[in-house]
Amino acid sequence: MNPGWLEVIVGIIGVALGAAGKMARSSVVIALGLILMGIAHIVSATWAHFLGDVGAFLILLGLGMSIAMLLRQWRKK
Q1: Among 69, 17, 62, 66, CA closest to 36
Q2: What is the pLDDT of residues 50-69, one digit of tens each?
Q3: Who has the most CB within 10 Å: 2, 25, 35, 76?
Q4: Interatomic CA distance for residues 27 and 76, integer angstroms
């Protein structure tokens, strides 16, 4: 099985949980990045680099959002 399918499945589960209100917005952004990186493993080489880069950007953006929220909550205490 192509490893990209696992990323897509985990990403879809993450987006579904986010739509149901069970996950934070930053986690949904990370899940979207996982979906794009999984698709990058599946598609042809012409789109693979672009989708991989956009997916990596979304994952880093989601991690940055998570860290910012943690720092914000830590400063409130």
Answers
A1: 62
A2: 999 999 999 999 999 999 99
A3: 35
A4: 22
